[in-house]
Amino acid sequence: MPDDVWEQFLRDSVDGVPDAPKEPSARARTVAGRLGDQPAGEQGWRTYTPPQPRRRKGRYVVGLIAAVALLVAAFDPWDMIGSSGAEGPPLAQESGRPTQAPPVEPAGRPTLDDPFKGSPAARWADGTAGITVPAARATGWMDEAQVERSLRQSRDFLAAAGLDPAVLRGERPTRAIALINPHQPDMKTYLSAAFRTPSAENDPLLLFSRFEASHARVVGDVVKTRGRLTYREGERGALEVTADVTSVYPVVRAEAGSDEVVRTVVRREVVMSWDDPSKIITEPGTFSLVSYKVDMTNGGCDNHSGYFRPEFGAERGADGSTGGETVDPYDRSTPISEGSGGTDGRCGTATRS
Predict the structure, then answer these.
(1) Are 285 and 266 in contact (CB under 8 A)?
(2) Largest CA distance in the chain
(3) pLDDT grade for 15, boundaries at 50, 70 and 90
(4) CA distance 236 to 113
(5) Which residues make Cβ contacts (< 8 Å) with residue 331, sequence separation at least 6?
(6) Does pLDDT of 101 surpass 90?
(7) Per-domain residue ranges for the chain?
(8) Fewest CB atoms within 10 Å of the CB: 134, 303, 339, 344?
(9) Is the pLDDT higher at 55 or at 129?
């Protein structure tokens, strides 16, 4: 051993090493023993566990995602990169009349891949799933099971009249007509003329949704709906069912390769009477129509062709207006008023599509 190292060893033996461990005091030994008796998972109230280094990776990832989101918001303020257009989860079924119109959705132009973008209908259900059917109870001449069956058939009529792909292509709504009482004189006249010589009085669009195949076609196979059925006892003990349903149809021009998507929004109120066959001449499984009204936007102004005639491009004007009173086609907070819209020549401007 070198002499200088030996001399340092002798000095440390006498003076002690400054950083050498010291014998703990009695109090220190007591505290250490008490802590040693604690279960391994417990921590003292003053203890502190530093975060594991690997947790920092999560913060870095979150920060990176946030930075990307800011860049997207900065360079895509109008949501052009693409999204479903729906803000929030799908809406629950409508259980009663709304008190106000739905909120305005973020602006967005509909596309072939996202035809409901920028519309409240993006959160609506598809087809008949958007039509609320209430629980059945015995009413009038019907027991509970009969009421349940009649409500289901009422919804089937709405589907056959406004959702059937063949009917939307302009074909005759045979299945829907089969549910209407054939012994109802005024309806016999209406149905006879509506598809042969449509007019303001005998307009098939009052009850049925049809697009002329040479003019426009529905995008995809989804029509968004929102509405409900209600019922009560009607005249002569009949079951009177009222349907109030809004349907949204995204369409493009009929020409192949067309990609400009517009929407036709149609709301109908239809009152159906499921009559007691002992009091009214009827056929089993059919109803009598009490009343029917329609309110629609972008289906053709002053149009009595028997088909919806949506407008595209320059046809809609620079601001998309058609003149006349403005109307929100998604506002279901009030009943359809007489002449509020539809196919009778009283054309307004939709505030949104």
Answers:
(1) no
(2) 130
(3) low
(4) 50
(5) 100, 101, 102
(6) yes
(7) 120-350
(8) 339
(9) 129
